[in-house]
Specification:
α3 crosses α4 and α6 packs across α7. This protein has helices at residues 18-21, 80-88, 92-111, 127-138, 198-203, 232-242, 258-265, 277-286, 300-315, 325-331, and strands at residues 11-15, 30-35, 112-122, 143-150, 165-172, 210-212, 248-251, 269-274, 293-297. The protein is an alpha/beta fold and 332 residues long. The chain has a single domain, classed as Vaccinia Virus protein VP39 (Rossmann fold, 3-Layer(aba) Sandwich). 31% of the residues lie in helices and 17% in strands.
């Protein structure tokens, strides 16, 4: 990154490939990480090799953090590689998608503070595969919740139950020390107010793990025009419950910047990363009124060109594998 990031930096938006930025960030720096990666459409994602989850990794290497030491064996005593190999053999499309996600999730885990929480927003088709692999990768005891965001908008299938939900998997870095404060979360109306006291009706109820919330209205004031924009209300619940004022929030699939907008409104600081120029354009407009938000540009074209050249060399048998130095040089 052209200007090194630290916890004393202002909130920041970085135009870059996230996997070129994440290894340079200091470990255990973020209380909350929200990730909304591109859903697996069957198109091949850009693969990135990693050695961070080899079973020979020593417990004191810190690659997955102190509280993940020993979790490489996975639940029920199985090695992560064994579970991964067995599962990915069933679905070639998911195998390719996981090759894209895995190194980024390992970096997210390294960057998560000891009291931190990871929210991973996934398509219903991938969530259950991902859950099994994340239990093995991070440790099943680190799994906190499966959140269901349910909405009722758009076309409805007539030959099956209409699919109107997304899944958000929630993992904590340290099951004994994670931060969660439900008292700060906006309450919602009771669905059957006649069954509770007037006092409870007036106060409202805490959300459960099923969140009924509309999508961003195509005609509403919240709309930025970015196609995968998530509603403020969804991010607000996560950030209220799993971080405090002044804490750092990370989103490296930033999209329209909703994570940053909500973090700023709630008094948190944020680091957002996205490689899409349209995303950066939307966030520049969205954050124009916010004081002290840095925008950092990197040479995306140079990085992409270097990656393509490296892939070509590998295909020709002239390279055993990249170590990322070509991209780091392009960014610098």
């Amino acid at each position: 990154m052209p200007t090194a990031w630290s916890q004393t930096s202002p909130s920041r938006v970085v135009h870059a490939d996230n996997l070129e930025i994440l290894p340079g960030l200091p470990a255990e720096s973020f209380t909350l990480i929200y990730l909304d990666p591109p859903f697996n459409t069957g198109r091949k994602q850009n693969r990135q090799s990693t050695t961070s989850v080899r079973s020979s990794m020593a417990a004191d290497s810190g690659a997955l953090g102190a509280h993940a030491a020993g979790t490489i064996t996975g639940f029920k005593g199985q090695r992560y590689e064994r579970i991964k190999g067995d599962l990915l053999g069933y679905d070639d499309q998911f195998e390719d998608y996981w090759a894209f996600l895995e190194p980024r999730l390992i970096e997210a885990w390294r960057l998560l503070a000891d009291d931190g929480t990871l929210y991973l927003h996934l398509d219903y088709r991938e969530a259950h595969y991902a859950k099994v692999l994340l239990d093995a990768l991070f440790g099943r005891d680190c799994f906190l919740n499966e959140l269901i965001w349910a909405y009722d908008y758009g076309a409805k299938s007539k030959n099956r139950w209409p699919t109107k939900h997304d899944t958000i998997l929630v993992y904590v870095k340290n099951p004994a020390a994670y931060y969660f404060d439900s008292t700060t979360v906006d309450r919602e109306p009771y669905m059957a107010p006649g069954l509770v006291t007037p006092e409870k009706v007036a106060k409202g109820k805490l959300p459960t793990d099923v969140w009924w919330h509309t999508i961003v209205s195509p005609t509403g004031k919240e709309k930025t025009g970015y196609p995968t924009q998530k509603p403020v209300g969804i991010l607000r619940r996560m950030i209220q419950a799993s971080s405090r004022e002044g804490d750092w929030v990370l989103d490296f699939f930033a999209g329209s910047g909703t994570t940053g907008a909500v973090a700023a409104a709630l008094g948190r600081r944020f680091l957002l990363v996205d490689r899409n120029p349209e995303s950066i354009k939307v966030m520049r407009a969205r954050f124009a009124a916010l004081p002290e938000v840095d925008f950092i540009e990197t040479d995306i074209d140079a990085v992409a060109h270097a990656e393509a050249a490296a892939d070509g060399d590998a295909a020709d048998g002239n390279a055993a594998g990249g170590d990322g130095t070509h991209a780091a040089a392009a960014i610098a």
